[in-house]
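hi!! sorry for the late reply, been swamped w classes. u asked for the two structures so here they r. pasted raw, havent cleaned anything up. first the sequence of the first protein and right below it the tokens
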Amino acid sequence: MPARFSAATDARPRYELAMLFQRPNDDVLYDALIARDASYDGFAYVGVRTTGIFCKLTCAARKPKRENVQFYDTTAECLHAGFRPCQRCRPMMGAGAPEPLVAELLDALDRDPERRWLETDIVAMGFDASTVRRAFKRRFGMCFLEMARLRRLGQAAERLTAGDSVIEAQVEAGFGSGSGFRATVTRLLGEAPVKLRGKTMLKADWIETPIGPMIAIADAHALHILEFLERKALATEVRKLRTATGSAIAFGRSAPIDQIEAELGAYFAGRSADFATRIAPQGTAFERQVWDGLRRIQAGSSATYSGLAAEIGNPAAVRAVGRANGANPIAIVIPCHRVVGASGDLTGYGGGLWRKRWLLEHERRTA
């Protein structure tokens, strides 16, 4: 591997040996970007938030402002963050000529970044799928299909109008499509690993259901949020969760998300209304008491706010029970949809009254 420092007579910056093992800070990298310092080729890349493109530091394109850039160690991190490769400096080609099959597939991906690539497509081009997988793993640390998926998500992110998106802005904008949601979460949560060190990591992913996509957020042990994407309070719930836990949120999967997806599949198929996924909703002691009461309402039945207040031993707290019911961050599992007005009429539901009606009727049919 070439050294990252030069002789004393060289005009480029000198670095101590330790710098071979530790990436310089972003200010140093920005200076290298302005100077088009070739000593960083292959060791650092720059993502430009205003264009959604990532480049080599030596790219000949017009240089972005300091506040509009983010630096990454690898092309994989750039793709995970939702950036697409620059067509001018072609950062995916890296140092040295790539294997012919790698170059051909990269060119095909550049021509059609929104294509949903399958292994059969690779075979149809005359390549052996396992050979392609190994070649891309060696060069990029990810397989071609994963790279293609990330490129597709980066293209979806281009359609967002919020700029440097955050999950709250995505949710408030009502951007509910599967691919768009993944792109948003990737762009939002795909921070450089150096910025996530020392933080507890929560994972976020979407789950498709017959009545619309849901977002699930969990740590390694428990589910914290499960909501329909249209829910207006979702942004507030996410902010509350991040504040309460001091956690970063990354796009991905954890065991509780896999488990709740399987249990929701059984629920919507009418096989079971039981949920064993461990949950850890953020709330006050009173809210948690109400949520425990909600979980005791059997599928196929319903309760009133006054009945629920009496059931938890606080019959005068009907309004407070209503507020706690509305603050529930784990839909369906904590079945706030099973609470109706005193007259039996359906009352407000964050996921929409039509979903509340659907869920109640579904449970009555399958109870």
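now the second protein. again sequence first, tokens right under
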Amino acid sequence: MKRRTDLTTPRQRRRVGIHYDPDAFGSFSESIARFLGTGRYLVIQSFVVVTWVIVNIYKPFQFDGYPFIFLTLILSLQASYAAPLILLAQNRQEDRDNEQLERDRGLAARTQADTEYLARELAGVRLVLADLVTMEDLREQTDAITEALEKLNAAVLQQQPDSQPGE
């Protein structure tokens, strides 16, 4: 094996064989799995098997030299291809579900952070509003000052000697 002096980039693996688009093949396998999981497919397959059995029971119409061996072979071949395609479709669905779960987790985290921020802001507004003077507080304070001024004015008037107006 030839030793490379430049180790900054990884080696490229040589690809030998058939090259295909994994997404296109995955979509194809999902469409097959969707079809194989329908009632229509089960009815069609049941019809084909029953027809095969009926035709091979009667000797004049029999086309399978060894009755039902070819049918077994066909059903085994169909099952051997269907199972991996269904598993591939399930894996792709699981990947999509995981991605959706991650998006949902991110959204939940953002929503929680926004809710906590709004709760802090609301608490701050409540604290600020608790310190504000209301009209009732202002009226009480004004009445108290007015009473105090009236008492002070009365006390000042009592201490002054009676003076004549105009002197």
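hope this helps!! also noticed smth abt the second:
The chain has a mean pLDDT of 83.
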